[in-house]
């Protein structure tokens, strides 16, 4: 748990956007990264929550239609109580906090209690969800205005809506939180003389992999929504623009409609997640392991003091490169002391991290795994040469065993520990048990073990695992998962594997 800042805290009422993790504002993301406490509700996607500080306290105050486990008055008190303890309190709300999000009530309460607060706007679902489903809320030829209406009151009852005014006003009508009131909305508009052929649509779970659009007219949209068993969250759209069908773009990308759980550590996940999202996938970043550098490392200190005795420096992960580099910097060790060394890396990702450091690898196997790296080293390293191998404490024994059999002296020095990790807002058993997520992506055997540890009750036969290499696949298959392995052990090949799966 983070150490709170002293003094009374500040509450940030942050709009999370509709659900897509990349639709939160830059400021909202920064505040999540810095937060001491994150108070969130049901409409906030878990993908957005993954930006949150790993050491923050997470408080779920989720509400859904007809089921309010924590009343709004209690939420107000929670915000005030947490602020009294000090620190940064992020109240994360779906969409925009002031567009039917009850952010105004929370701000008024905090103000009455003398607690500082800030409001950080978010992208409302009223415009973003239609956009993701190819519908403009305004259009030069169809709608010169749009009107946002709530389809239920704070107590869950049906609101008093002036349908006459809405029909006379024209433009696009957007009804939020109306999945259970489609019939009432349609009847109200028809009774106020809206033409029955007026286009209408119900947009379900917008900006997620499971989004869908049910189109019809105001006369039949209620029946169609019932037949399609539409679930919350969903919005109702009425007007000429609701019939637009020339702007659909979301489903045209190769991984659209698919959700991936990325399990690699927080420090490594960005590139993989970005590549998947670029192809249209929804990504839930759920690290199952955490990298913990060994701060006091006498074995490494001794090796660095005798670095002239070594001829090769070998890295088996980008993480190893970064932690080794940080260790040198922390102990004021000049990089020039490594100038006599040759460098070997396990694969392209590690090579890229080496180049960022200013070194080019001298050896990289064609197949990116421990066995092929060891076999290449055995061919190229002389009998009188010595290898320094800083890596994870629980690194593969296969690598060192091959080197030992070849008679090569190797100093296998633990550089970091790999610990299991889970996030309080990620329910892997629900994600895969209920078919919410389509794939789990694993970049090491340890991420598989962390996944299994985090979801002990899950039937792993329901998990389709995309694996970076043979050892990773072996671990996933041992757990009972359905496994597929990338042709090469790099993140680009994992994404290519996902695309190939969807073409089948």
UniProtKB/TrEMBL annotation:
Its EC number is 2.1.1.107. One of its GO terms (biological process) is methylation. It comes from the Bacteria. Keywords: Methyltransferase, Porphyrin biosynthesis, S-adenosyl-L-methionine, Transferase. Residues 270-495 form the Tetrapyrrole biosynthesis uroporphyrinogen III synthase domain. Transmembrane segments: none annotated. This is uroporphyrinogen-III C-methyltransferase. Residues 11-221 form the Tetrapyrrole methylase domain. The keyword Secreted does not apply. GO terms for molecular function: methyltransferase activity.
């Amino acid at each position: 748990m983070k150490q709170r800042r002293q003094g009374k805290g500040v509450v940030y009422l942050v709009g999370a956007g509709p659900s897509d993790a990349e639709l939160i504002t830059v400021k909202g993301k920064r505040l999540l990264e810095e937060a001491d406490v994150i108070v969130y509700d049901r409409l906030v996607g878990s993908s957005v929550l993954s930006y949150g500080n790993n050491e923050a306290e997470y408080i779920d105050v989720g509400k859904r239609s007809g089921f309010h486990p924590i009343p709004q008055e209690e939420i107000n008190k929670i915000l005030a109580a947490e602020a009294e303890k000090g620190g940064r309190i992020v109240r994360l709300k779906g969409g925009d906090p002031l567009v039917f999000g009850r952010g105004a009530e929370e701000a008024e309460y905090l103000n009455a209690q003398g607690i500082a607060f800030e409001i950080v706007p978010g992208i409302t679902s009223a415009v973003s969800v239609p956009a993701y489903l190819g519908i403009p809320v305004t259009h030069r030829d169809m709608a010169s205005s749009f009107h946002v209406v709530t389809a239920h009151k704070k107590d869950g009852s049906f609101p008093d809506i002036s349908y006459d005014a809405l029909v006379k006003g024209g433009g696009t009508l957007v009804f939020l939180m109306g999945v259970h009131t489609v019939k009432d909305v349609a009847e109200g508009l028809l009774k106020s003389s809206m033409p029955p052929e007026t286009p209408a649509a119900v947009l379900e779970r917008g900006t997620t992999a499971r989004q869908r659009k049910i189109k019809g007219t105001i006369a039949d949209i209620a029946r169609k929504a019932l037949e399609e068993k539409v679930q919350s969250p969903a919005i109702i759209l009425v007007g000429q623009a609701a019939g637009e069908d020339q702007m659909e773009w979301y489903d045209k990308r190769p991984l659209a409609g698919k959700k991936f759980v990325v399990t690699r550590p927080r420090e490594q996940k960005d590139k993989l997640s970005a590549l998947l999202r670029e192809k249209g996938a929804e990504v839930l970043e759920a690290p199952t392991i955490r990298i913990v550098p060994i701060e006091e490392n006498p074995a490494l200190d001794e090796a660095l003091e005798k670095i002239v005795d070594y001829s090769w420096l070998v890295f088996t992960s980008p993480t190893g490169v970064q932690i080794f580099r940080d260790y040198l910097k922390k102990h004021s060790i000049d990089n020039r002391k490594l100038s006599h060394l040759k460098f070997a890396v396990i694969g392209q990702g590690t090579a890229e991290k080496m180049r960022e450091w200013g070194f080019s690898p001298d050896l990289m196997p064609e197949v990116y795994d421990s066995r092929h790296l060891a076999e290449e080293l055995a061919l190229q390293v002389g009998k009188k040469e010595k290898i320094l191998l800083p890596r994870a404490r629980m690194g593969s024994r296969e690598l060192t065993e091959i080197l030992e059999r070849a008679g090569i002296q190797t100093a296998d020095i633990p550089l970091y520990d790999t610990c299991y990790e889970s996030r309080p807002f990620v329910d892997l058993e629900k994600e895969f048990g209920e078919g919410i997520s389509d794939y789990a992506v694993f970049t090491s055997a340890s991420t598989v073990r962390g996944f299994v540890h985090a979801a002990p009750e899950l039937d792993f036969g329901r998990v389709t695992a995309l694996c970076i290499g043979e050892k990773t696949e072996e671990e996933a298959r041992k757990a009972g998962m359905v496994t597929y392995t990338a042709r090469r052990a790099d993140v680009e090949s994992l994404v290519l594997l996902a695309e190939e799966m969807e073409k089948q």
